[in-house]
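Worked example 2:
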Amino acid sequence: MKQLFYKLLMVGLVSMVWSCQPKDDPKPSTTGRDDNMALGNPSRAARDANNYLMVKPQFALSYNSNKSTANWVSWHLNAAWKGGAIRQDDFLPDPDLLSNWYAVKKSDYNDTGFDRGHLCPSDDRDGSQTDNSATFLMTNIVPQAPDHNRKTWRLLEEYCRKLVTEGNELYIIAGTYGSGGIGSANNGAVVRTIEDGKITVPSRLWKVILVLPNGSNDLSRINTSTRVIAVDIPNTQDAAEKKWYEYRVTTNSIESKTTYNFFDKLPTDVQDAIEGKTDRVQIE
């Protein structure tokens, strides 16, 4: 009887310990998560090596194998994408790259004076560990001046998530153009590439954000009064001396610099109206 008692006791203890172990995230619900490219494909990305369309559950992107960075990343953001998953920090080469392309590694950014800057932010995809890990694929990462990344860009990301908590859903596209940034190394000199020329350092980072009250049939709800926030920010340390909203421009301005066509799923008159305005909402 005593041996049986100890066996039962041990089974109970093991069961208790096992129940306390962290479990993999359950498969997240996709209810309320809309198409990450619902408003269009800005560069008509397809199979071109420098404009290569990659569609993932968490975001879509146009990849440039010559620069080893994305041209742009597009994603939808609302409360359905949010959750309690912790930041994974598992920067990894993207397994979906073609085998003959250079696959950027985490270590390629070491000691360069540039952060591994997210285009689609980690905190926009914390609905599950899988969602969060996707944002650490190196195809979603660009060389970003540290103060730019940790101050100006971060505060814009936080503002977007604040809009979501206020009952909105967002369609966001972020990207880069040009070459040559100023990071925290090289005594303030412009750096055009890192990792022996394999990775281009962009000269500018931009973001276009369309804001809608929560709802359905989103394309039909967008009109000439819909709010669009567009920013175009130099990839330099001293970019952080200004607030993100001081970099607001028209979407048309970013189109002229990149040759992209945003919101091409919308009627032409709506595109013209929302792309020609600079957001003037007062930011606290």
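Residues 1-24 have pLDDT under 50 and may be disordered. The helical segments are 2-20, 129-134, 146-165, 218-221, 251-258, 268-275.
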